[in-house]
Amino acid sequence: MDQCTAVALLPPPEHVLALSAPGRRPEPGHVLCELGERHDGEHSAMLWDEGGRPGSAVWVRWDTERARLLPLPWCPARDPGNADDACGLFAGHPSGHGWEVTDPTDEAVTRDLARLHPHLFR
After folding, report:
1. For residues 47 and 62, what is the distance between their CA atoms, to the nearest angstrom?
2. pTM of the full predicted structure?
3. Spatial CA neighbour of 35 closest among 61, 56, 72, 64
4. Among 9, 47, 59, 87, which residue has the least CB neighbours within 10 Å?
5. How sure is the predictor about 16, in pLDDT bands with cuts at 50, 70 and 90?
6. What would the pLDDT profile of 56-87 be if each residue is shown by its tens digit?
7. How many CB atoms lie within 10 A of CB 116?
């Protein structure tokens, strides 16, 4: 399934603004939903992962009304075709697992690069 195309422009969190240098206010940034298209509920994107602890990944979840930052645990599912690959989304996510979601832009760029530079894609 293709990746959801929802995009949101988010302002920096208040704690980031409080830590910023005078005259150097951080800019808002865009986030792209990482879930599969036509998912139920809020859109979601992982912002950062502190690693090594359950719930250490911080996700932004948004809809038309608001955005929230949440520490969420990783989905425990493993790709049945490659047990070394974990899902890459949060536990209880809607839509397919990470290995089932395809970013069509990334796929198109990869196809062009493979056509132009086949020696890099053996």
Report:
1. 13
2. 0.78
3. 61
4. 9
5. confident
6. 799 999 999 999 999 999 999 999 988 888 89
7. 9
Phi first, then psi, for residue 70 (nearest 5°) are: -140, 135
DSSP string, 31-80: EE--SBTT-SS-EEEEEEE--SSTT-EEEEEE-SS-EEEEEEPBP--EET
Q: What pLDDT is stored for residue 50 in this prediction?
A: 80
| Tokens at 63, concatenated | 């809809």
Residue of 12, 13, 36 lying closest to 88 (CA atoms): 36
What does the pLDDT read at residue 24?
Answer: 86
Contact yes or no for 101/35 (Cβ under 8 A): yes
* 108: exposed, middle or buried (Cβ count in 10 Å: 0-12, 13-18, 19+): exposed
Q: Find where tokens 């990783």 sit.
A: 74
Q: With contact defined as beta carbons under 8 Å apart, do 14 and 67 qualify?
A: no
Give the largest Cα separation in the chain, rounded.
Answer: 51
Both tokens of 99, joined, read: 């290995």
